[in-house]
Design goal:
The protein has helices spanning about 1-35, 40-45; strands at about 50-55, 60-65, 65-70, 75-80, 85-90, 90-95, 100-105, 115-125, 130, 140, 160, 165-170, 185, 190-195, 200. It is an alpha+beta fold and about 200 residues long. The strands form five sheets. Strands 2, 4, 7, 8, 9, 10 and 14 form a seven-stranded antiparallel sheet that branches. Strands 1-15 form a two-stranded antiparallel ribbon. A two-stranded antiparallel ribbon has the order 3-13. The N and C termini lie far apart (about 80 Å).
């Protein structure tokens, strides 16, 4: 009788231990399924922290190339270097970072019109990667070298005033006497562009 009770007690204890072990295994299985594996974590894409420069930010550059209405045409690209750091919070894009721009339009000098160049910035190069820039067009206009005639009385004949190098027409109207000068900028020329759209760059750590 005592032996039978002993066996029943031992069997009950063993059953309880078996149930506890099975429950523990099931809980561990659920936890393992809920947590991503090490491989999955390593395979997940890493998104680096970025900084955003708002529209309206000034970008100061100095040319590496020569730009001229005599040699450039619309669509030509030029290289420049950042002349002042771009600062956003505690992050800055350093001086000397390379920038790629484009000649958006060229107007050659002509009778009645001055020469002009329209420039925009397109790319910022950081750690061998390119990041888009969108700037407002920068329009550069040649100085005014055009001379105009002084009004003369109607009926006065056309004659040359050698002291002023001007021609006086019989109509008494102002007329263009010379053609405007070409426009040219050499390396180290400095310009300031304005971002027309926000620009986003990675934060280097």
């Amino acid at each position: 009788m005592r032996y039978a009770r002993y066996v029943a007690t031992v069997s009950g204890i063993a059953a309880l231990i078996l149930l506890a072990v099975m429950a523990g295994r099931q809980n561990r299985s659920v936890s393992a399924n809920e947590q991503p594996s090490l491989f999955a974590r390593l395979a997940s894409p890493i998104h680096p922290a970025t900084v955003v420069l708002p529209a309206g930010t000034k970008i100061h550059v100095r040319l590496e190339d020569t730009l001229s209405t005599e040699i450039n045409t619309s669509g030509d690209h030029f290289s420049a270097l950042l002349d002042e750091p771009l600062v956003a919070g505690k992050t800055e894009v350093p001086v000397g970072s390379r920038i790629i721009g484009e000649v958006a339009a060229v107007s050659k000098p002509s009778s009645g019109a001055r020469a002009s160049l329209t420039l925009i910035l397109q790319k910022l190069l950081l750690v061998k990667k390119e990041y888009d820039l969108h700037t407002a067009p920068l329009v550069l206009i040649a100085r005014n070298t055009i001379k105009r005639e002084l009004p003369v009385s109607p009926g006065e004949s056309l004659q040359e005033n050698r002291n002023e190098s001007e021609h006086k027409p019989s109509t008494g109207n102002y007329v263009l006497a010379t053609q405007g000068a070409p426009l040219a900028f050499g390396p180290e020329s400095r310009f300031a562009f304005t971002l027309s759209e926000p620009a986003e760059f990675p934060i280097e750590k």
